[in-house]
Amino acid sequence: MNILLSPAKIMIEEPNKGNRPLFYEDSLALREEIKTWSKEEMKKRFKASEALNEKAYVAFHSPSPLGRALFVYSGIAYQYLDAKSLKEEELSYLQAHLCILSGLYGLLRPLDQIDSYRLMMGSRGSFLGKKDLYAFWGDRIAKELEDDVTLNLASEEYAKAVRPYLPKEKFIDVFFGEEENGKLVEKGVYAKMARGRMTRYLAAIQAKSIDDVKGFNELGYVFDEEKSLPTKLVFVKGKIEEGKKKLFEPDW
Q1: Are 137 and 164 spatial neighbours (Cβ–Cβ below 8 Å)?
Q2: Torsion of CA 20, 23, 28, 33, to 10 degrees
Q3: Which residues neighbour 61 within 8 Å (Cβ) at sequence distance 6 or greater?
């Protein structure tokens, strides 16, 4: 079973050097093209603030090695995955099953080396003669996944880089919802928390099949068989209990 996860915009440095990414040469080619852009063009293409655009510009012109992807990314999902506290067998599981999607690197395994960058998969404009990054990566990422069932814990921005190229019955989405005004809605921050925690859960139980995923019952979410479909697992959040821990505080 493959597990898809989005990258994070927030990155930190960690001391260990990682493996060479699968599409390393492509990442270098993308870097070289982006380096030819002016700050003004980069800001327009990335729709970034002055401060973020300056960081992106420096990252592409003077990239610094950060370390292994799973430990470098530090957004909400990764805070709840908490890579630093993983057991050896859990990290080995994720190295074998987790695929982190990236606009610059295409596909990353947890222990792949990454350098500083800021490039979203949905960034506008052409890249190396292709109309956008989806066209640039084409079906190459999906070809690394097509022999197995793929559990999608990535945002739609990144899932779109894979979804069109895989059999529908082998691409399983996960929806983390809660009842609101009679409707089931997914809230971004809570969904990110749950994606990270589910990834950790799958590593802890060494999940082998989609049925194993259904046992997840953390952060108030439980699997809802009635609302689910063969290609969409729905987890519903119950009432938030009083005294709940702070939003970004993992409870392990």
Answers
A1: no
A2: -160
A3: 35
Length of the chain: 252
**Which residues, 6 or more positions from 205, have their beta carbon under 8 angstroms from its beta carbon?**
212, 215
DSSP string, 21-41: PTTHHHHHHHHHHHTTS-HHH
221 CB burial (10 A radius; 0-12, 13-18, 19+) = buried
Measure the CA–CA gap between 133 and 138, rounded to whole angstroms.
8
Q: What is d(CA 170, CA 164) in angstroms, rounded to the nearest whole number?
A: 12
- What is the rounded distance in angstroms from the CA atom of residue 146 to the CA atom of residue 49? 38
Interval 149-197: pLDDT, tens: 999 999 999 999 999 999 999 999 999 999 888 889 999 899 999 999 9
**CA 225 to CA 232: how far, in whole Å?**
10
Q: Which of 38, 117, 41 shows the shortest CA–CA distance to 73?
A: 117
